[in-house]
Write a structure and sequence with these properties.
single chain, mainly beta, 1 helix, 4 strands, globular
Length: about 80
């Protein structure tokens, strides 16, 4: 599935990261953004939504989720 634009952002304060969330998870999207897994709820709305997102870490060309290993239980993120 190819991207059709940014639908939301994921913000992770502890690692000072804000990333765009795009529709789909093809290689083009995941090189520059986080992808929304097709078939799951859209990451918009209210509590109780079960959206699934996917993203890379450790890419040479983009930081993305590289520092996610610094998170511990209780750290928060926002969409």
């Amino acid at each position: 599935m190819t991207g059709t634009g940014i639908i939301a952002y994921v913000k992770i304060p502890k690692i000072n990261t804000t990333l765009p969330i795009d529709h789909g998870t093809d290689d083009t999207i995941l090189q520059v953004a986080v992808g929304h897994i097709p078939g799951t709820s859209l990451p918009v709305g209210s509590k109780g939504i079960h959206a699934v997102i996917s993203g890379h870490r450790g890419l040479l060309s983009a930081k993305l989720f590289t520092d996610i290993d610094r998170l511990v239980d209780g750290d928060t993120f926002m969409i």
